[in-house]
Design goal:
Low-confidence stretches: none
Number of strands: 12
Distance between the termini: 36 Å
Mean pLDDT: 95
CATH class: Alpha Beta
Largest sheet: 10 strands, mixed
Radius of gyration: 18 Å
CATH superfamily: Aldolase class I
Bound molecules: iron/sulfur cluster
Helix content: 25-40%
Strand content: 15-25%
Order of helices and strands: EEEHEHEHEHEHEHHEEHEHEH
Number of helices: 10
Shape: globular
Structural class: alpha/beta
CATH architecture: Alpha-Beta Barrel
Amino acid sequence: MQTMINGCDISCCTLCPRECGTDRTASYGNCGCDDKLRAARCALHMWEEPCISGTNGSGTIFFSGCSLSCCYCQNQKISHDCFGTEITTKHLAQCMLKLQQQGAHNINFVTGSHFTPWITEAVHMVRDKLTIPLVWNSSGYETVETLRLLDGIIDIYLPDVKYLYPATAREYSWAPDYPEYALKAIAEMHRQVGKPVFDENGIMKKGLIIRHLILPGHRHESIDILKKLTELLPKEEFLISLMGQYTPPKEKLPYKNLNRKLTTMEYSSVLRCAEKLELNGFSQELSSAQAQYTPEFDLEGLPND
Ligand code: SF4
Ligand code: SF4
């Protein structure tokens, strides 16, 4: 029997590129989640890009689970271990209103792809009360079909582009098809939101910011990603956010390069390429502490916290 959530059949789930066909009413998919909406934190966050965090903060809602399984993930507690609490779509709708009341510049859905129909259902409940932009903060591992559910709902896309080479995507995230899906996803996101729009205070209202975390030992791939993006989109129609704060996980990985930080030479060479390509956007200092960007996942702001 089919079980539909906001028009999507979750008894044979194909929401993300894994297309694992799991019956989420009875079991857990590769993303680690069943049909219960789960989240780990709902709070103002100051460490997104300046045009997203502004002065008041971005209203982040971190979802549990993830359909990628990056070996260097800094959020393993929620992405791999699925830490979080079960919430209803009504709770989620209330969380959005609460963040808006707290002064958030936007509502920022973090890693919510595997819950897309639940999220759209919640947005519809409070749509007439929301006056701030909605941000989709994702790994970039998305299908165009699922992204179309967000067309007209999401104002700002904030995807990663992690890899361009299938071999790297296979090695580090068990997803050799990541580059293919991510590039199509980026094109669809751009189609939906168009070029960046800001308010008089420089806060983003609409647009696309593409994030890229430079991995130690992979500066050439990073440079190829930047070049590929300029082939895919007009450069004035997106912003790039280059991140150099890669932090090796506590437990040693079987890849020597991922057990060290990025060098200044690696970081500078990618930054130089971005400048040469005349890309607009942001870069995080090498010295930035990763801890600043990774909040405590303590169920803050969620029902029963
Ligand atoms: S969202 Fe989860 S259950 Fe659905 S296809 Fe992806 S991994 Fe499978
Ligand atoms: S996509 Fe992000 S949250 Fe998911 S496993 Fe990779 S690094 Fe972690």
